[in-house]
Specification:
With about 300 residues, the chain is mainly alpha-helical. Helix content is about 65%, strand content about 5%. The chain has 15 helices and two strands. It has a two-stranded antiparallel ribbon. A hairpin with a 5-residue loop joins β1 and β2. It is globular. The two termini are about 30 Å apart. About 40% of the residues are buried.
Length: about 300
């Protein structure tokens, strides 16, 4: 790797894992364990979450999550995203990667860690009709919203920029249903059609809303506190994420597609980052070592 690429690679790995080597302690733990995990090699979850399109999916998921006033209140009241945006990102990535690539014991442990944090997140917010409501991060409605938006973002981004999914979109949604169940989601979608139906139900029921708090969060996601060297690539990824969001949600977010070919430009950035980071992630490599040790490869 050239002297120019190495520092950029370090910044990217630090941003997304909290460790410049790209292998924090929890990644090393993925090598441990006594089973293949909830998904295993060749699964749809491995294909989607091991692909470069996850870089765009994370942005898309964050944007979409702001449209539920209860979820937005939880982020506004409890998250330190403005002071430490990378810390929040790396924490989310730890859960995603652990559930995807680790054995079942570690996946359950990480999901329980998320659940314990949810237990503390409570407060009030004004709903779309202006009525004050109480919220808790563990409320069934909020858990469902976050899971549906997350699944839609990662599936939608992969369908635009990723490789074919083993078993297709239905297989990914069906597999990732398990992740929702691990954090307490009731009746997570089991097919692409169910996923779209649940997402549309939130929109058509009048639950979602856009206000100044949403606009503030969108402005921050557009201009996060990233290292300067990463900002040009991030701006393209942000534009790609916006372009991939269905128009009805883009309008609620107050966003427009870029006038330039954001989808194509994002594809080029993902190819470039993929060359810098390597074909497989350290997490997937660790999982494959565990499977080889267990004779399951």
């Amino acid at each position: 790797m050239s002297n120019i690429a190495a520092p950029f690679r370090s910044r990217v790995l630090s941003a997304f894992t909290g460790n410049a080597s790209g292998r924090p302690d929890w990644v090393s733990q993925i090598e441990e364990g006594d089973d293949a995990g909830f998904f295993g090699a060749g699964s749809a979850a491995w294909a989607v979450h091991g692909g470069m399109a996850t870089l765009v999916a994370g942005i898309r998921a964050l944007l979409m999550q702001t449209l539920h006033p209860g979820a937005m209140a939880g982020v506004h009241d409890w998250s330190r995203y403005k002071e430490d945006p990378l810390g929040r990102l790396s924490g989310t990535i730890q859960w995603l990667i652990s559930v995807t690539f680790s054995d079942t014991t570690m996946a359950v442990r990480e999901s329980n860690r998320v659940g314990r944090f949810h237990d503390r997140v409570t407060g009030t917010y004004l709903d779309a009709q202006g009525v004050e409501r109480t919220y808790a991060a563990g409320d069934p409605e909020l858990l469902s919203w976050v899971h549906v938006v997350f699944t839609d973002a990662f599936l939608g981004s992969h369908l635009v920029w990723g490789s074919p999914i083993p078993g297709g979109p239905d297989q990914y949604v069906r597999e990732w249903k398990k992740a929702g169940e691990l954090v307490g989601v009731l009746d997570p979608p089991a097919s692409e059609a169910e996923l779209h139906a649940q997402l549309d139900a939130f929109r058509t029921s009048g639950i979602l809303k856009s206000d100044e708090r949403v606009a503030e969060a969108v402005r921050f996601i557009r201009h996060p506190g990233l290292p300067k060297g990463m900002l040009p690539a991030y701006k393209i990824l942000f534009a790609g994420a916006v372009a991939s969001i269905p128009v009805e949600y883009r309008r609620m977010l107050g966003l427009r597609r870029a006038w330039w070919p954001a989808i194509t430009a994002t594809r080029l950035i993902l190819v470039l980052v993929g060359k810098l980071l390597g074909r497989s992630s350290t997490s997937e490599d660790a999982a494959r070592k565990r499977l080889a040790r267990l004779g399951l490869h």
